[in-house]
Amino acid sequence: MTPAAAAALPGAPFVHWRDGRLWLEDICLQTLVEQHGTPLFVYSQAAILSALAAYQRGLAGRDALICYALKANSSLAILKLLAQAGCGFDIVSAGELERALAAGADPARIVFSGVGKTPAEMRRALQAGIGCFNVESEAELETLNAVALAQGDGAPAPVSLRVNPNVDAQTHPYIATGLRDNKFGIAHDNTLAAYLRAAALPGLRVLGIDCHIGSQITSEAPYLQAMDRVLDLLAAIEARGIALAHIDFGGGLGIDYHGEAPPAADALWHKLLARLDARGYGSRKILIEPGRSLVGNAGLCLTQTLYLKPGAHKNFCVVDAAMNDLPRPALYQSHHQIVPLSAPAPQTPARVYDVVGPVCESGDWLGKDRLLAVRAGDMLAVLSTGAYCMSMSSNYNSRPRAAEILVSGASSRLIRQREPVHDLWRLENP
Ligand code: LLP
Fold first, then answer.
1. Which of 3, 82, 94, 369 is the most exposed place for a label (fewest CB within 10 A)?
2. To test the ligand 1 pocket, which listed residue (172, 213, 292, 388) has its Cβ within 8 A of the most ligand atoms?
3. What's the pLDDT tens digit per position in 177-211?
4. What CATH number is attached to the domain comprising 40?
């Protein structure tokens, strides 16, 4: 896509062309590159808050709590922004718990998911006073019970059991989590027995039920199916005298990377609430755990073209961001749009390139077969990289992690410094 093609970019709200340059909100991205270098992640505060507002509209008037799944992007400034906007958090490790607390989260608004919580993590979460443990196995129930009973105050641990509803989320197999063959949750058929056991354990206080069927879900059908399966169970559990104060429907809503058209969060929740109402559970407390859909389209990664390698069979455009910064293409063959930061210089030929990073692996590519009019030195933006990019980045090839900027209107703020190279071996003992 060239600057002439469109003033606004699909799947990249608050990104637009102005005078032949790419802007995010009221900031010219070229100026950020000049100040901070590349690779550089840049996020739009307005895009994050408007994604959140869609959920808030969809759930307006309900007893609902949006628990941002911070694995999507756990940078403190983003957590703080979302906490201040009223979010709770869905965590999956003690590290995420400490991050959420460091960002000012209210522990009572934190739910703790994950198949492998350690006793030490359980103790810390109990001590912090988190809102709920989303328990994923019968064995975990027993461990959590023992940990809670051994705590000084003897207060029972608040629990919800994560059901695996065996629903196909129609997404990449690595990020489908609600199928029978996935490691997540308690099998639908075993859930009632697990609730009876949980209710009998003195160290536990049964609070709710939850599910999460996958990520990058682009239609409403799997949600409706999962909701029906969870409500069937809820009825059976309550018929046995166990009251469930809340239902947590997980996260998973997809975003537009490359022409996908997932339902808007408010439209999705309009439909889901209609089903909930029809089944008589409309006044139940609702929790949700969105990650990607709050931050994914709000971020981009700026990178500089280092070399062009035209070839007989392939042309390569080698850039300074790599799979350590942007692991999603290598892991899931995911598509991220790649656009120049400026209109091409006159007479720059447009060619089809594989856009690749400097890391020594053939899997280190950011985009395949992209038509680009670029020269060495030109800047590019990799779009829709606000979720599962920085949070999954690594130091492979001893590459320091990128810097991050949060943009709001005409102001921008460095929210994470570029990692100094000597920090890479700070904890080592040669
Ligand atoms: N709740 C639970 C229990 C989860 O496991 C997840 C994501 C979420 C909520 C948030 O899901 P979201 O709304 O972000 O789809 N790295 C992969 C995605 C992994 C998702 C894992 N679980 C990717 O880059 O596509």
1. 369
2. 292
3. 777 778 888 999 999 999 999 999 999 999 999 99
4. 2.40.37.10
- Whole-number pLDDT of residue 11: 85
Domain that holds residue 395: 3-44+296-425
The domain boundary, picked from 290, 308, 326, lies at 290
**Ligand 1 atom with the shortest distance to the CA of 389:** 24
Query: Among 290, 316, 340, which residue terminates a domain?
Result: 290
Q: Tokens 């309900």 belong to which residue?
A: 62
Q: Which atom of ligand 1 is nearest to the CA of 392?
A: 16
Q: Return the pLDDT at 5.
A: 46
Nearest atom of ligand 1 to the alpha carbon of 216: 15
Ligand 1 first shell, C-beta below 6 A: 69, 72, 90, 113, 175, 177, 212, 215-216, 250-253, 289-293, 328, 332, 388, 392
Spot the catalytic one: 67, 132, 360, 389: 360
d(CA 180, CA 337) in angstroms, rounded, equals 34
How much distance in Å is there from the Cα of 250 to the middle of ligand 1?
Answer: 9
pLDDT of residue 6: 47
Same domain as 263, residue 162: yes
Alpha carbon of 251 to ligand 1 centroid (Å): 7
202 and 135 share one domain: yes
Residue length of the chain: 430
Cα 357 to Cα 117: distance, rounded to the nearest angstrom: 35
CA 252 to ligand 1 centroid distance, Å: 6
Pair type for strands 403-408 and 338-340: unpaired
Q: How far is the CA of 121 from the centre of ligand 1 (A)?
A: 20
Asked if 301 and 421 sit in the same domain, the reply is: yes
Asked if the structure places residue 81 within a domain, the reply is: no
Which atom of ligand 1 lies nearest, measured to the CA of 210? 3
Half-sphere exposure of 52 (CA within 13 A, CB side): 22
Q: How many domains is the chain built from?
A: 2
Residue 360 annotated as catalytic? yes
DSSP-derived secondary structure for 86-150: T-EEEESSHHHHHHHHHTT--GGGEEE--S---HHHHHHHHHHT-SEEEE-SHHHHHHHHHHHHH
Predicted model pTM: 0.97
Distance from Cα 30 to the centre of ligand 1, integer Å: 32
Would you say residue 213 lies in a domain? yes
Eight-state DSSP code of residue 395: -
Residues 369-424: pLDDT tens digits?
Answer: 999 999 999 999 999 999 999 999 999 999 999 999 999 999 999 999 999 999 99
